[in-house]
Q: What sequence folds into this?
């Protein structure tokens, strides 16, 4: 059993940020009941690619959850949500501010049902402030926060991150915020409202950039494959492609010069004697380095750096990364059998606990797969559930559950 065994989470979120948060909680043992719309369910179910008609995008971040499909605009569907909320420790939602109040599932409404509820809202700009009424997506947040202005090559057009960094970041931030609120609840018995914004969660990550700007007004610019502060700490071209070289301090630089490149004279070179000088002369430094690195393949240099204690590694594409034996041995690539998709691989769990490890117990649920099961735990009998289905208040999965390999 995971460390969050016994925690009950009612997940009213969809697409990525909220579902990623609740997946993390579910992986660590929480019981997550995912509330989906009766018409189509979570919007990510309509995002490809598909296998046998099921979205593999939805599959990747909704494991270990149960799916109940409710029409929250109907009184009967709303009543079922209220009954679920009374049994939950945590509610997670990512509607635009104001929507939950219209649906009558906002924090104040839920607090009346359960005084100690932990209610986490993930939105574009937060529940307050001049932009709170606006919607935002990951790329909008990347643009507003300044991330796109400092990503890519110098003098290039603004460039996004390679992944949905703020959606995932919001999910991770929400997960640790919820766990902190839960610890507070265990100590005091008090619940609370947790307000998170996609446009804000990434700002604290700009540590070096903030250091430069608040100290001297320096506005960060794109640095391509180079680090903003340390040098050489960047992508380096070898004979057969690029590798990553990380000389983040003077000691590793000296090891690189002496033990890897056999250029001990560079240690006293007036251009390269200190990190700040190496940054000032980064173009010359890069040319000097690549003149040597281009003579051998990247694996040769990675091995030589490793022997010398200089941090270095390959720059893999995604296929190379997921086939890396280290990730495989550490169970960062896992496989599970889905009742419609069949066997499918997914990303593993990065947190390794010695006593209460997380686990992948069930695949992502089918739309409304657990509607009847969950409603029965709330006291509804099959006749009452059938009535709710006929009224359009709930949706139950009615297809045949058997893997199609």
A:
């Amino acid at each position: 059993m995971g460390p969050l065994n016994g925690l009950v989470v009612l997940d009213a979120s969809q697409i990525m940020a909220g579902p990623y948060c609740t997946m993390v909680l579910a992986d660590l043992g929480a019981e997550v009941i995912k509330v989906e719309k009766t018409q189509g369910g979570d919007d990510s179910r309509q995002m490809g690619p598909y296998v046998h008609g099921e979205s593999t995008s939805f599959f990747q971040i909704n494991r270990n959850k149960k799916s109940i499909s409710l029409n929250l605009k109907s009184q009967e569907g709303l009543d079922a949500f209220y009954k679920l909320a009374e049994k939950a420790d945590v509610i997670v939602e990512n509607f635009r501010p104001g929507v939950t109040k219209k649906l009558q599932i906002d924090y104040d409404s839920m607090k009346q049902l359960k005084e100690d509820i932990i209610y986490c809202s993930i939105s574009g700009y937060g529940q307050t402030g001049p932009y709170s009424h606006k919607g935002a997506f990951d790329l909008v947040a990347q643009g507003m926060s300044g991330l796109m202005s400092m990503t890519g090559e110098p003098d290039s057009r603004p460039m996004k991150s390679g992944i949905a960094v703020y959606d995932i970041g919001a999910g991770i931030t929400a997960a640790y915020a919820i766990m902190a609120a839960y610890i507070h609840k265990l100590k005091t018995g008090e619940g609370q409202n947790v307000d998170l914004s996609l446009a804000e969660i990434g700002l604290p990550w700009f540590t070096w950039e903030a250091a430069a700007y608040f100290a001297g007004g320096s506005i960060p610019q794109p640095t391509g494959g180079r680090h903003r502060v340390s040098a050489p700490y960047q992508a380096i071209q070898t004979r057969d492609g690029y590798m990553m070289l990380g000389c983040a301090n003077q000691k590793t630089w000296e090891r690189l010069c002496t033990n890897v490149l056999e250029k001990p004279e560079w240690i006293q070179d007036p251009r390269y004697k200190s990190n700040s000088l190496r940054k000032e002369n980064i173009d010359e430094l890069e040319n000097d380095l690549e003149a040597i690195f281009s003579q051998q393949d990247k694996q040769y240099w990675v091995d030589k750096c490793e022997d010398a204690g200089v941090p270095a590694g390959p720059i893999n594409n995604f296929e190379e990364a997921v086939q890396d034996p280290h990730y495989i041995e550490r169970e960062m690539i896992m496989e599970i059998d889905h009742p419609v998709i069949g066997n499918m691989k997914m990303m593993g769990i990065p947190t390794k606990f010695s006593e209460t490890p997380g686990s992948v117990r069930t695949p992502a649920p089918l739309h409304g797969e657990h509607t009847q099961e969950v409603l029965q735990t709330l006291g509804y009998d099959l006749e009452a559930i059938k009535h709710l289905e006929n009224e359009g208040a709930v949706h139950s999965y009615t297809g045949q559950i058997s893997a199609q390999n």
